[in-house]
Amino acid sequence: DGYTKDWGHVSKAYRTKQNYVCEECEIDLSERRAEFFCEVHHIDGNKSNNSLKNLRCLCVNCHSQVDKKQRTKSYEIESV
What is the DSSP string of 28-58? Predict the structure, then answer.
């Protein structure tokens, strides 16, 4: 799937660093039951690039929207 073996740890550490707040819409997902809806996105789409500059803490809604835009952009580039 392209993720590094330590992705679970990296993801948890980054979400904790961001206090489980979406960097896009700023919804606070820090409550225990809400943490499930907080994900980490790879900005460049490379799941093995875990540089802090390449990560964003996003709620599931924002993450799905960002991924949709990336897929559309990739498809447009490949179609050229």
Answer: B--STTTGGGEEEEETTS-TT---GGGEEEE
Q: State the amino acid at position 59 in one-letter form.
A: C
C-alpha to C-alpha distance for 41 and 32, rounded to whole angstroms:
20
Cα separation values, 76 from 32, 42, 67, 71, Å: 39, 20, 14, 9
Per-residue confidence (pLDDT) for residue 75, from 0 to 100: 45
Rounded to whole angstroms, the Cα distance separating 11 from 8 reads: 5
| The predicted structure's pLDDT at residue 78 | 54
Q: Which residues of the chain register pLDDT less than 50?
A: 74-75, 77, 80
Using alpha carbons, select from 17, 32, 31, 28 the residue that is nearest to residue 59: 28
Two tokens at 52?
Answer: 């802090």
User: Which of 77, 65, 14 lies closest to 4 in space, CA to CA?
Assistant: 14
